[in-house]
């Protein structure tokens, strides 16, 4: 194995695949990055068995230098190779396997040698492409991730709630996340009729969301992201980067019946006003939870919070529109703050069906995304 490569491209690619490498893996080989060098490409792979990232660097690019002199493969610990390449004071780096797994990195006046690991012992990862496949715009996928993942559960007692459910029925794709106390739903229109129902770990989706460099490239090239899946795994192909994740077993709860369709009150306010108000009153917490009370009428909206031990906070915000009788409702400040923030809208609509009934939050200019929050009972 012997190749010369631009430091910037090599480091960016190593950083991308290293996100899938666990520092606590019981399998020593999975602490490393696998380097496969063929006649026309260098392929880097990182994995923790649940999520795997493969990055292909091709020789036919005008954006960087890649010259392959000899093919071969090796596995090198991720932290070691990243440290070497990051600190190498050269625009181009030569990588050469000397004997066995001993690998030399050289550039400018620096030369460093490390002991690698035998690639034959690296766990086999099946990167075969699942049959069910569709394309999605990069910005749309990023919105799905941003507007749903935050509502997943962080408790492993119900593993299926730690993921986002992707359910396609015809040309409609519903992406839903819930932790039992709140729910986020994003609706997407597909070009082709599809039929699948899978739950993808939120952790894996967040890793995809971190692929800003790869997503920027496909945006610049006017390309889409290809998603392929079956009942065991899902693949996301972003340019020359492939991210593969296992799916979560188990049936995702039927959430559609939880979403109210009839409302007694509808309130529209400035998104920044309510975010700032909730943020200011949230210093008051009870058992670690910021309980916020919203009192709304046609003339005013009051955001407040109080605690006998800490104090109280009250703030009035402007009303854009309000329909229905005066309403008072309490909720988790963090849940509503998160829901409003991810909508990314200048104004938001709150729809209430009762003081102790779930309420929904939506953007006034995008009905494809819906946020649901359960109210809290207070005795003050």
In short:
The chain is an alpha+beta fold.
Descriptive overview:
The protein is α+β, with helices and mostly antiparallel strands and 380 residues long. Helix 3 (138-148) packs across helix 4 (202-209) and helix 6 runs antiparallel to helix 7. The protein is elongated. The chain has an eight-stranded antiparallel sheet with strand order 6-2-3-4-15-14-13-10. Strands 11-12-24-23-22-16-20 form a seven-stranded antiparallel sheet. The chain starts with a strand and ends in a 7-residue tail after the last strand. It contains seven helices and 24 strands.
Topology (elements, then pairings):
Layout: E1 2-6, H1 7-18, E2 32-37, E3 41-47, E4 51-58, E5 66-70, E6 72-77, H2 78-87, E7 92-99, E8 102-107, E9 110-115, E10 132-136, H3 138-148, E11 163-178, E12 182-201, H4 202-209, H5 212-220, E13 225-229, E14 233-238, E15 241-246, E16 265-270, H6 271-281, E17 291-296, E18 301-307, E19 311-317, E20 321-323, E21 327-332, H7 333-343, E22 347-352, E23 359-363, E24 369-373
Antiparallel strand pairs: 1-5, 1-7, 2-3, 2-6, 3-4, 4-15, 7-8, 8-9, 10-13, 11-12, 12-24, 13-14, 14-15, 16-20, 16-22, 17-18, 17-21, 18-19, 22-23, 23-24
């Amino acid at each position: 194995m012997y190749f010369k490569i631009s430091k910037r491209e090599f480091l960016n690619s190593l950083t991308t695949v290293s996100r899938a490498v666990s520092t606590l893996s019981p399998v020593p080989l999975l602490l490393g990055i696998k380097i496969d060098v063929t006649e026309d490409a260098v392929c880097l792979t990182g994995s923790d068995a649940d999520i795997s990232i493969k990055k292909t660097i091709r020789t036919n690019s005008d954006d960087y230098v890649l010259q392959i002199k000899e093919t071969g493969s090796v596995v090198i610990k991720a932290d070691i190779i990243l440290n070497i390449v990051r600190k190498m004071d050269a625009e181009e780096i030569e990588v050469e396997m000397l004997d066995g797994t001993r690998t030399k990195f050289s550039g400018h006046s620096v030369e460093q040698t490390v002991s690698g690991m035998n690639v034959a012992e690296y766990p086999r990862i099946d990167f075969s492409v699942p049959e069910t496949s569709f394309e999605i715009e990069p910005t749309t996928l990023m919105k799905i991730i941003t507007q749903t993942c935050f509502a997943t559960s962080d408790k492993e007692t119900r593993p299926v709630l730690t993921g986002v459910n992707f359910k396609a029925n015809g040309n409609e794709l519903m992406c839903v996340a819930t932790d039992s106390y709140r729910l986020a739903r994003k609706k997407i229109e597909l070009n082709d009729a599809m039929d699948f129902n899978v739950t993808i770990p939120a952790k894996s989706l967040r890793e995809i969301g971190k692929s800003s460099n790869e997503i920027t490239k496909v945006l610049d090239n006017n390309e889409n992201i290809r998603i392929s899946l079956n009942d065991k795994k899902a693949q996301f192909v972003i340019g020359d980067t492939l991210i593969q994740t296992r799916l979560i077993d188990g049936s995702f709860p039927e959430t559609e019946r939880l979403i109210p369709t009839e409302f007694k009150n509808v309130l529209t306010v400035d998104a920044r006003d309510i975010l700032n108000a909730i943020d200011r009153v949230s210093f008051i917490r009870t058992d670690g939870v910021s309980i916020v009370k919203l009192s709304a009428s046609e003339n005013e909206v009051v955001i407040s919070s109080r605690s006998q031990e800490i104090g109280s906070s009250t703030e009035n915000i402007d009303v854009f529109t309000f329909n229905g009788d005066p309403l008072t409702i309490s909720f988790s400040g963090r849940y509503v703050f998160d829901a409003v923030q991810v909508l990314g809208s200048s104004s938001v609509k709150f729809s209430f069906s009762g003081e102790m009934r779930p309420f929904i939050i939506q953007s006034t200019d995008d009905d494809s995304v819906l946020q649901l929050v359960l109210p809290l009972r207070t005795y003050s």
